[in-house]
Amino acid sequence: MTDVTWSSLSAEGLHEHAQAPERVAELLRGAISAGTIRPGSKLPEVELTRQLDISRHTLRSGFQILASEGLVERHPNRGVFVHQPTAADVVEVYRVRRVLEVGAVRTADFPPEELEQLHRIVSAAELARERGDIPAMAQANQVFHRTIAAQVRSAMIDALMEQVLARMRLAFYAKSEQPSFHHTYIVRNRELARLLSQGDRAAAEAYLLSYLDAAEAELLEHLDS
C-alpha cells in the first residue's frame, strides 16, 4: 500500500506538551502535502510513536485532528488510513480554492518581491521538468498556490490553505507520474504570474477562475474513468 520510510519523518520539537497533537498533525499533513504519504496508506501507530517519541494517546489525538480535516479515517479493527479522495472531495476542495485563491487575487497586495517569487517558482518548476523531476514539479505547484493565498497575510487563511493543499495532493496523486499533467500547471501558473505582474487584476481573477474550473473538471473526469 505504501513505501513510506517512516524514519524520514523528523521528530524535532515533538515532545509531550500541550501542542504535541497539533505538531503531530502538522508533520503528517506536511508529508501528505509533499506526496510522501499516499492515499490509502496505513499510518502505523507503533512505528510512528517510536519514531516521533510520543505516546499513543498523543498520536491518536493528532489523527483526530487530521480526521476532522478529511485527511485520514479510522477503519474499525484495521487502523488509521490516509483518505482516498472521491468526486465530492474534489468539488469541495475547488469550492474552497475559489474562495481563498480568487479572493487573494482580487483583494490582496502583491508586492514586487512576491511577484518575483511567483516567477522564480515557475522557473524552478520548468527546470524540474527539464530534468524529469516529477516530485519537484508537483511541489512547485503547491508552493505557487500557497504563495498566492499567503498574500492575504492571514494566519487563519494560511492554516486553511495547508489543509487544502494536503487534500489537493491526495486528489492529484493518481496523476503524479504523468509529466504532461504537471506541465499543464506550469503553463497555467506562468500565465497567472504574468497577469499579476502586469497589474491586471480583473484578467488575473478571470484567468484563475477558468484555471480552477478546468483543473476540477480534469480531476473529476479522471475519477470517473
TrEMBL record:
Pfam families: FCD, GntR. Keywords: DNA-binding, Transcription, Transcription regulation. CDD domains: WHTH_GntR. Residues 18-85 form the HTH gntR-type domain. The keyword Transcription regulation applies. GO terms for molecular function: DNA binding; DNA-binding transcription factor activity. PANTHER family: GNTR FAMILY REGULATORY PROTEIN, TRANSCRIPTIONAL REGULATOR, GNTR FAMILY. This is DNA-binding GntR family transcriptional regulator. It comes from Nesterenkonia sandarakina.
